[in-house]
Specification:
single chain, alpha+beta, Alpha-Beta Plaits, four-stranded antiparallel β-sheet, 7 helices, 26% strand, elongated
Length: 232
């Protein structure tokens, strides 16, 4: 791997800044001052910047509190995308969203550059449940719980059994699904005569959205959260 990429992946500096650091003699590889940005370094190389050893990492795992108005993609011609919210600290990892949230849906969205990790969470065979909070225009009824549990047939897909919890306010509910079909929660609610006015994903599996994370805020997953999601 090139030295400039190695240092950039460590989040220390941009490739442009790496060249400046090299000119200053601030970067060493295995104790020797580096003079070229394209110098090759390996996994066992000891790279230091201003005397401090860097610790390379290939992947990054982020939690985003997605605001409405953003598309769950890395590029879009019409709307802003969720990766716009990542910021310079993680932009060099070239992360992508794990699954998707509709443009009008808020809440927990994971971002990573680890394809294997993403596949585990989005594969229908893994049955990773996602939990949503919804506000409705009409009150849910007890009979709707059975309708969700039975699954629903749509033109494009068959929705598996879903869990519906009605709060003390029947206009506010929690829904758990193991899939991520297009507008699935909204369409299931509409099937029983209720339109979703507000929708927020609050959990993926046992990992909940960080309540201290502002809308548009991003942080790395904790080691415990990563292990839970990775099935460890």
């Amino acid at each position: 791997m090139r030295l400039d990429k190695y240092v950039t992946d460590c989040g220390i500096a941009s490739r442009k800044d790496v060249k400046k650091l090299i000119k200053q003699g601030a970067i060493t590889v295995d104790g020797e001052i580096c003079k070229k940005a394209d110098e090759q370094v390996g996994e066992k190389s000891v790279v230091c910047v201003n005397g401090e050893e860097l610790h390379y990492r290939k992947y990054v795992y982020l939690m985003l509190n997605k605001p409405a108005g953003y598309v769950s993609a890395v590029a879009d011609k019409k709307y802003p995308v969720v990766t716009d919210l990542v910021g310079e600290e993680y932009s060099h990892f070239e992360v992508f969203p794990v699954g998707r949230l509709d443009i009008n849906t808020e809440g927990l969205l994971l971002l990573t550059n680890d394809g294997k990790f993403a596949h585990r969470l989005t594969s229908p065979n893994k049955n990773v449940y996602k939990r949503y909070f919804a506000k409705l225009d009409n009150p849910m009824e007890e009979s709707d719980i059975e309708a969700f549990a039975a699954g629903m047939e749509f033109k494009e897909f068959t929705a598996k059994s879903a869990k519906l919890e009605i709060t003390e306010n029947p206009y506010e509910v929690y829904v758990e699904i193991a899939e991520g079909k297009f507008h699935q929660v909204r369409r299931m609610c509409a099937r029983v005569g209720k339109n979703v006015l507000y929708l927020k994903r609050i959990a993926i599996g046992e990992v909940q959205l960080d309540a201290t994370l502002d809308l548009g805020g991003v942080r790395e997953l904790t080691e415990t959260e990563f292990k839970i999601l990775n099935g460890e």
